[in-house]
């Protein structure tokens, strides 16, 4: 899988854990298993902290595992800080440190009132001639890839389009309702809301890239949202992402508050 394809998958993993709780200082920890065609390829652990002043910080670690580790060691750390406003998490700063083998890259994005005011990549990448640049218009009213997938309990989750920027690629995730399914894991047992997802790349990618084209043409991507017992919010607990190499699944194996 291409470098950017793995980074997009890591952004999806990061998006799973961001679960706000009450205004009081509470911690919420989640653990995830990632598989490709049924084989384990990564594990992830995240911690969400909500402070009394309505600020929040979310931090996570992601590492390759199983057969993927035999090919190349991949790791990432990600974090987002912001404020809880109008029952939504509004990011102020998002960062992702990504390492594949000996190569490392850092993505940093700063927000103000939902708009991106700066986005940097270190070291600066060399862009091909057929690269589709992110425009100033693309940076308005944009969600980060972590807290952008958390919704209050009265939201019609699967009837909206999510404008996401992950530090490099600007994409829309078009959600559509597909009913509900039973879901059980450590810390949760109940119904999950199932959304079909259509991936629409906007900018920040190489035109004609096979993995982007494959995903944008697929109708098999899904996100399952479960309601957190700690607050009146929904967050993802299961994601399936079709790739040319098989189905990537991201499953919450622990979903609960830290006492």
Describe what you observe in this structure.
A hairpin with a 2-residue loop joins strand 4 and strand 5. The protein has helices spanning 3-15, 67-71, 210-217; strands at 26-36, 39-50, 55-64, 74-85, 88-100, 103-112, 115-122, 131-132, 151-152, 161-165, 170-185, 188-203, 205-206, 222-227, 233-243, 246-258. It has three helices and 16 strands. The chain has one domain (3-258). By secondary structure, the chain is mainly beta. Keywords: Signal.
- Structural classification: mainly beta
| 3D shape | globular
* Major sheet characteristics: 14 strands, antiparallel
Query: Overall pLDDT, averaged?
Result: 86
Strand-and-helix sequence, N→C? HEEEHEEEEEEEEEEHEEE
Number of domains: 1
Specify the helix fraction band. Answer: 10-25%
Given the structure, what is the number of helices? 3
What is the distance, rounded to the nearest whole angstrom, between the alpha carbons of the first and last residues?
A: 39 Å
Which features does this protein show?
259 residues; mainly beta; signal; DUF3108
Short synopsis of the structure:
With 259 residues, the protein is mainly β. It has one domain (3-258). The chain is 10% helix and 58% strand.
Protein topology:
Elements: H1 3-15, E1 26-36, E2 39-50, E3 55-64, H2 67-71, E4 74-85, E5 88-100, E6 103-112, E7 115-122, E8 131-132, E9 151-152, E10 161-165, E11 170-185, E12 188-203, E13 205-206, H3 210-217, E14 222-227, E15 233-243, E16 246-258
Antiparallel strand pairs: 1-2, 1-16, 2-3, 3-4, 4-5, 5-6, 6-7, 8-13, 9-15, 10-11, 11-12, 12-14, 14-15, 15-16
């Amino acid at each position: 899988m291409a470098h950017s394809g793995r980074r997009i998958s890591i952004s999806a993993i990061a998006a799973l854990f961001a679960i706000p709780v009450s205004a009081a200082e509470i911690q919420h920890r989640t653990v995830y298993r990632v598989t490709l065609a049924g084989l384990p390829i990564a594990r992830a652990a995240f911690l969400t902290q909500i402070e009394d002043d309505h600020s929040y910080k979310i931090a996570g670690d992601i590492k390759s595992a199983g057969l993927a580790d035999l090919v190349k060691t991949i790791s990432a750390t990600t974090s987002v800080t912001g404020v809880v406003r109008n029952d939504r998490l509004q990011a102020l700063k998002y960062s992702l440190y990504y390492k594949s083998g000996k190569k490392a890259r850092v993505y940093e994005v700063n927000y103000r009132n939902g708009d991106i005011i700066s986005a940097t990549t270190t070291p600066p990448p060399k862009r091909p001639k057929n690269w589709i640049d992110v425009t100033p218009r693309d940076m308005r009213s944009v969600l980060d890839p972590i807290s952008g997938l958390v919704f209050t309990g009265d939201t019609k989750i699967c009837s909206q389009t999510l404008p996401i920027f992950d530090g490099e690629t600007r994409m829309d995730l078009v959600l559509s309702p597909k009913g509900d399914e039973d879901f059980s894991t450590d810390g949760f047992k109940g119904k999950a809301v199932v959304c079909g997802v259509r991936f629409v790349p906007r900018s920040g990618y190489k035109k004609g890239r096979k993995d982007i084209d494959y995903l944008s043409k697929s109708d098999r991507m899904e996100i399952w949202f479960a309601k957190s017992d700690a607050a009146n919010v929904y967050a993802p607990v299961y994601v399936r992402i079709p790739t040319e190499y098989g189905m990537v699944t991201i499953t919450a194996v622990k979903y609960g508050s830290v006492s």
